[in-house]
Amino acid sequence: MGKVKKGKIPLVLAVDTGGTFTDMLLLDTGHLLSLKISSTPSDPADAVLKAVRSLLEGRDDNYLLLHGSTVATNSLLERKGARVKLVTNAGFEDIIEIGRQNRPQLYALVGHRPPPLVSRDDRHGIRGRMGPDGEVIEPLDSDQLGELAGHLTDGESIAVVLLNSYANPDHEEAVADALEALPVPLSVSVRLLPEYREYERTSTTVVNAYIAPTMARYLGRLDQESGAERVSIMGSNGGSLPVERATREPIHTVLSGPAGGVVGALTWSRKAGHKRIITFDMGGTSTDVSLCPGDPLYTRELNIGGQPIAVPVIDIHTVGAGGGSLARVDPGGALRVGPRSAGAEPGPICYGKGGEGVTVTDAHAWLGRLPTDAFLGGQGTLDRASIEPHLRRLAERLGTTLEGAAEGVLSVAASAMERALRVISVERGHDPADFTIVAFGGAGGLHVTDLAERLGAPRAIVPPLPGLLSAYGMLAADLTREVSRTVLLSTGSSGTEERMMEVFAELDQRVVQAMTEEGVRRKDITVERRVDARYEGQSFELRVPETAWETAFHILHEERYGYRRPDTPVEAVTLRSIASAPGPELKLERMRPATAPPNTSDTRLYSGGEWVDISRVWREDLSPGHELEGPLLVLEYSSTTWVPHGWQVTLDDWGSLHLVPK
């Protein structure tokens, strides 16, 4: 890849913790150094600190640590969070359990929902009530307020959620003040999500409280033991946030790593002249996909482990199909792949750590798509022979050959990933033929041409350092902060525009103050305004820019749903001020054009029902101007790209591989 010009911060480390590998990029006075080591699921901080020590050995420089973590997500999925005490209005203790009327299993006679994160005995109601316009219907009970802390001493974390606190926070802040002295994390909904829809606000606040102690321990250890001058965490919205805020509000880190991948993919695709992309991130445990029609799409309807989360996140769809996904034959004789994964320990069989289940990575290694001598850029080797007995048992159950079983594993995994790509494109009215697929993650380059053919996409791009692209996205990400407030103002009422401007002015001031308190210079901060709007009577919103927001809403509604209602008043539901400031400066130099053909070598690979001799080339030997035809393997440190027959690959001036059908 091209050399990075020296930016404002000479030494920056970006670390992405995945299910199989922990990836690190070091930006050192204009150069990028990379490292992949096995993750440590029992304590993810061990792998991060080991990687830090390895790359910084012999250096005394102060540095910035940027980190993307799966700790919050895993804590939620595995139900290994804290015991939460929920304080809410008397009579509304069961909001967290009642939820919405949607049915998770549409055709089940008796549906099943995961149990709430707060048991019934840990929900405490307090007398007092705010109205929807912020009026006090019933004052807080001072006696109950004084006794409240004594009822919560056995909790590990506390969530405070009162009705209509977005309209008037006084009651909720009074409860928070009464509990401030307790030595446990305190999650207050009006500080975290001052918006209406009490179920989603309650669920979001409870999730934040549930994962807060785990994240506090994890981030605290990194902050203390890493030796970094400053630690920033990748946020789910594609921007970074300081470690102090991530500790208070870990809810913003639930899609930390995948968000970094989307930012990194957009950074490289824009340099290549492609702004409409589908990101395809295939790692060791899962595959994350996202549609970006020029910019990332955002959602506030995230659901992880059955828990709604209403903070803004990049719209990413995840399936349990990765390099470490385990293959099995179900009772009906059908081949299944995932969602169970071999993880980092023991990992795929070919890693030589005692794995026994055949994984997608093992299938690639058996078929020759992962040469045994090219693992991690040739620094490691793969044990292909150890795959045979396990693959043979799978093949016998399927009644096929070893190669047939391996190809079946890859085909089933590809079908799962194809479905995920169709969910975010075809099912939302987008034609994949209008998009470029950007593949990354350790295994993305091995599957991208197959998926492009299935979807009808015209081109695929594999950026530099694809196996570490999420870490690169953390380097490229801006610092961001968003504040919001539900207002419920209609164009059918007088004074709407004036009230909106008043609220926006307050939100702008709050978000800028928050950024400057986190160490960002005022002159580096830009603020954008957004309006969540809907027609009166609707129960969903569309987000539009504040400028000419009513007109913008009519246009977007027609684009999205095929019609507009110009005679119906439009309601501004929630106003948002979004501040951003640039992160570390990354300037790339163009690569020099090729002056001679690249060095290639031969390898054997199973394709089209037979073993064939094909060429392989190291990516570092490619330059702009080289044009190679498949079948071909492109090898590199963090990934491998498979170029099948009928496809060709070129390198652009910035170092990205472009794969197109001949």
Q: Could you provide a short overview of the structure?
A:
The protein is an alpha+beta fold and 662 residues long.
| Helix count from the secondary structure assignment | 16
Note the main sheet.
8 strands, mixed
**Helix vs. strand class:** alpha+beta
Q: How many β-strand runs?
A: 36
Characteristics of this structure?
single chain, 662 residues, alpha+beta, eight-stranded mixed beta sheet, six-stranded mixed beta sheet, 16 helices, 36 strands, disordered N terminus
Describe the fold and architecture:
It contains 16 helices and 36 strands. Helix content is 29%, strand content 28%. Helix 2 (71-77) crosses helix 7 (198-225) and helix 10 (360-366) packs across helix 12. Strands 20-15-14-23-24-36-35-32 form an 8-stranded mixed β-sheet, sandwiched between helices. The two termini are 25 Å apart. It is an alpha+beta fold and 662 residues long. Strand 2 and strand 3 form a beta hairpin.
What's the layout of helices and strands?
Layout: E1 4-5, E2 11-17, E3 21-28, E4 31-38, H1 44-55, E5 64-68, H2 71-77, E6 84-89, H3 95-98, E7 123-126, E8 129-130, E9 136-138, H4 142-151, E10 157-160, H5 170-179, E11 186-188, H6 189-192, H7 198-225, E12 230-234, E13 240-242, H8 243-248, H9 256-271, E14 276-282, E15 287-293, E16 298-299, E17 302-304, E18 307-309, E19 313-314, E20 317-319, E21 325-329, E22 335-341, H10 360-366, H11 388-398, H12 402-424, E23 436-440, H13 444-455, E24 460-462, H14 469-476, E25 479-490, H15 496-517, E26 526-535, E27 542-545, H16 549-561, E28 570-581, E29 587-588, E30 600-607, E31 610-618, E32 627-629, E33 632-635, E34 640-643, E35 647-651, E36 657-661
Parallel strand pairs: 2-5, 5-12, 6-7, 6-10, 10-11, 14-23, 23-24, 31-33
Antiparallel strand pairs: 1-29, 2-3, 3-4, 8-9, 12-13, 14-15, 15-20, 16-19, 17-18, 21-22, 24-36, 25-28, 26-27, 26-28, 30-31, 32-35, 33-34, 35-36
